[in-house]
Amino acid sequence: MAIRGGDESGDWLDFYVPVGALGHADLTYWDGRPFFRSDVMDEWLAAIGTETFQSAFFNLGVIGFEVSGCTDASTLAGRLPQRRDIGCLLPRGNVLGYGAANS
After folding, report:
1. How many domains does the chain contain in total?
2. Domain range for residue 47?
3. pLDDT tens, residue by residue, 76-91
4. What is the pTM of this model?
């Protein structure tokens, strides 16, 4: 789903992979941590976000299970939180940084 902002919230690109599809593909998608967590999926989605950033600038990317609306770029103010329940793609100038979920 793509949401074109018309205000300070900006544009959003929100996509996901249904958990059932992962099971059908014989991919391990849960490692016992609270909430859905998959380092493999997170890294894959971060790579897609990084590639997308080369063509379409964005202010924040969030990665994880049902993360839409968990935070916003203005709340983070350009800084990755030290403790993250979700992965974050956060640009600084033309360079995109990735902070994987670490809790």
Report:
1. 1
2. 2-99
3. 988 999 999 889 999 9
4. 0.75
